[in-house]
Amino acid sequence: MPENKLSEEIASFEGLWEGGYYEGDPLTPLGKSTYGGFGYISILHATYLRCIKPYINPQTVALEIGAGRGAWTKALLPSKEVWVLDALPAEYNRFFEYLNHPKNVKYFQVKDFECTDLPENYFNYMFSFGCLCHVSFEGMTEYATNIFEKMQSGANCFWMFADKKKYNDFVENVERFNIWDGLSPKRKNLAPFKFVFKKFSKMLQPSFMKTDDFGDNQGHWYDAGTERTCEMLEKIGYKIIDPDVGTIPRDPIIHFVKP
Ligand SMILES: C[S@@+](CC[C@H](N)C(=O)[O-])C[C@H]1O[C@@H](n2cnc3c(N)ncnc32)[C@H](O)[C@@H]1O
pLDDT tens digits for 164-181? Predict the structure, then answer.
């Protein structure tokens, strides 16, 4: 393109967007933008974009703890290999059925936290979602300790776990994260629409209660806590990159590496 055309291109902005163009606030979880109803993505997809996509390629050797049916494992499949640990059998989880029997996935039903099936200095990525919140702090510590030697230097690791304080802060501020409240019209003359949004919100949202019920019962949540988990991982020798990547408003996901 000739140089004067390029200068014209820049000059064409003169007088436009006085006061500075403002698309919206990227720091507000449900901030409005000119994308309207298309301006939102699922927190699971945001987690995939932040914690999985940048790290998964044909050189990745991934370890997943607590895969269940394999919803997250599916996102790990472009890896060279995916090794999965779960407390339940693969058949019971219908794991290979859901994933259509991929050749690069190995599944191990665990009976303890020893990780004896895993080779040393082997994995360069680890992911866990929705599992460690059901595992005691002692169990998490055992996993972190026994997996340390299995990870290669520089391996990126992402663990979702439970934090009672984050959970209860979320419950106290649910309207900040509720899509119906986010999209609800703010202007007074739109009050009838606001009413409809509130009704939908009540009908469609799961209700979360503030709780102290992080007990030892089957299937219950264990309050590992973000600070305590960071301290435990650092003591073992991992380096914390981000105590909470922030993609899930209710629960933390920690990003750490094996140095
Ligand atoms: C709520 S599911 C989450 C499944 C999957 N990660 C997801 O988000 O769709 C929890 C899974 O963790 C498994 N699990 C529980 N304790 C475990 C442990 N100590 N080690 C490995 N897996 C475990 C359960 O069998 C179950 O499949």
Answer: 999 999 999 988 888 877
Position in ligand 1 atom list of the atom nearest CA 113: 19
Distance 86 CA to ligand 1 centre (A): 6
Q: Is 139 in the pocket of ligand 1 (CB under 6 A)?
A: yes
Q: CA 26 to CA 18: how far, in whole Å?
A: 21
**From ligand 1's centre to the CA of 34, what distance in Å?**
39
71 lines ligand 1 (CB under 6 A): yes
More confident residue, 179 or 117: 117
Average pLDDT over residues 97-109: 98
Q: What is the pLDDT of residues 61-93, one digit of tens each?
A: 999 999 999 999 999 999 999 999 999 999 999
Q: Give backbone dihedrals phi and psi of 45, rounded to 5 degrees, phi first.
A: -70, -40
Residue of 83, 84, 131 best suited for mutating to test ligand 1, as the one with most atoms within 8 Å of CB = 131
pLDDT value at 60 more than 70: yes
Superfamily the domain 36-162+221-257 falls into: Vaccinia Virus protein VP39 (3.40.50.150)
Q: Is the CB of 74 under 6 A from ligand 1?
A: no
Q: In what order do the strands lie in the sheet with 239-242?
A: 105-109, 81-86, 61-65, 123-128, 151-160, 253-257, 239-242
Q: Where are the domains of the chain?
A: 36-162+221-257, 168-204
